[in-house]
Write a structure and sequence with these properties.
It is built from 13 helices and 15 strands. It has 384 residues and is an alpha/beta fold. The protein has a 7-stranded mixed beta sheet with strand order 1-9-8-5-4-2-3, sandwiched between helices. The structure holds pyridoxal-5'-phosphate.
């Protein structure tokens, strides 16, 4: 089965991991800060805090932003469940803002309308809004940032798909229009550490708070302690934290993968052009629209097909050995969120998208032959 995405591991990647295995530190050594510094430099952010997954990074970012019980986080229903779960893990409520049917990202106008409605009706306002850069295409960050200034919420970018992407000619992750930005390094994403994630920010305070939450809420900094140090062994636990650390093995892999980020994105961009050219005369195949204010990292290639043919096309492609997928089942339709009161019909654009979307294979290592097979299989299925 041709997968929809997979990692690309070079000899250099393998050697980088072996070097750590032969070194003194498998974790809490020099590779993690080196990886953090390299990502921060790459995306032009002041600080980077690595974690053992993007899910963990989203959680520690929400905690650092002060999200807690009685507060609310808003995100897109078309995302992985982690984008909303980070609120629930803090004891806060999750709510959603419908998507734009063409970019498949959070609709800024829908956000503006919902903010206005909640304000005028005295409903809970969001403390944090999580735009999701779906498939690597940046949301309208200037618009969302303007609303954050008007209504007073924090912005946490879920850029799990978007390392190497840009917005207004600047790298996603520089947090010009947000407080924190989170990347994922799961093997299907753009670069990988096996499991892993990372948060960038320009706030020293947020960076230190996230780093502390990553290690049990413990500090070894005398200046942060409530009393004089008892001796060289001494540390203090100042708040409840977790063990969300990335290992040095993973960080070394990430650092090596980061060298190939530009190459990965170029390959994906070429593959996307091949798909666009192949589907250009077929109105029944509608790819994600890519507004020119952003350059996508092309984590996924998502098309919409007519709802009436969707499940037939999906099955036909799987039958032809093509591991198509669907990103994503609307989060509010998951049983856990239904039990919290969300129901079918709450976010019609997201639900309409779910009736039509298919992710086609896209990854370094996918050949032109593979792509031609995908295209002919899809067009054949649409004719039947
Ligand atoms: C993959 C993904 C996550 C979670 O990333 P992990 O590193 O697997 O925890 C969160 N949000 C989105 C949009 C994702 O695609």
């Amino acid at each position: 089965m041709l997968p929809y995405g997979r990692q690309s591991i070079s000899n250099e990647d393998i050697q980088a991991v072996v070097k750590v295995l032969e070194s003194d530190f498998l974790t809490q050594g020099p590779a993690v800060p080196a990886f953090e510094a390299a990502v921060a430099k790459k995306v032009n952010a002041r600080f980077a805090v690595a974690a053992n997954s993007a899910t963990s990074a989203l959680h520690m970012a929400c905690l650092a932003l002060g999200l807690g019980p009685g507060q609310s986080l808003w995100t897109s229903p078309i995302s992985f469940v982690a984008s909303a779960n980070c609120a629930r893990l803090c004891g806060a409520n999750a709510d959603f803002v419908d998507i734009d049917p063409e970019t498949f990202c959070m609709d800024t106008q829908a956000l503006a309308d919902k903010l206005h409605r909640h304000k005028t009706q005295g409903l809970t306002m969001p403390s944090v809004v999580v735009p999701v850069h779906l498939a690597g295409q940046s949301c309208d960050m200037a618009g969302i940032h303007a609303l954050s200034q008007q209504y007073g919420f924090k912005v946490l970018e879920d850029a799990s798909h978007a390392i190497g992407a840009s917005y207004n000619n600047e790298p996603v992750g520089n947090t010009r229009f947000s407080d924190v930005c989170v990347f994922s390094f799961h093997p299907v994403k753009i670069i990988t550490t096996g499991e892993g994630g990372l948060a960038t920010t320009n706030s020293e305070e947020l960076a230190q708070r996230m780093a502390r939450l990553r290690t049990h809420g413990i500090t070894r900094e005398p200046k942060d302690m409530t009393e004089a140090s008892h001796g060289p062994w001494y540390y203090q636990m100042l708040e409840l934290g977790l063990n969300y650390r990335l290992t040095d093995l993973q960080a070394a892999l990430g650092l090596s993968q980061l060298q190939r980020l530009g190459e990965f994105i170029q390959v994906r961009r070429d593959q996307v052009k091949t798909y666009h050219d192949a589907f250009s005369g077929y109105p029944d195949v509608m790819p994600q629209s890519l507004p020119s204010y952003a350059l996508s990292s092309h984590h996924l290639f998502i098309v919409k097909v007519p709802a009436a043919q969707h499940s037939h096309v999906f099955s036909a492609l799987r039958h032809d050995g093509i591991g198509v997928n669907l990103h994503y089942i609307p989060i509010h339709l998951q049983p856990y969120y239904q039990a919290l009161g969300f129901k079918k019909g709450d976010f019609p654009q997201a639900e309409g998208y779910y009736q039509q979307a298919i992710s086609l294979p896209l990854f370094p290592g996918l050949s032109l032959n593979n792509q031609e097979h995908v295209v002919s299989s899809l067009l054949r299925a649409l004719r039947h």
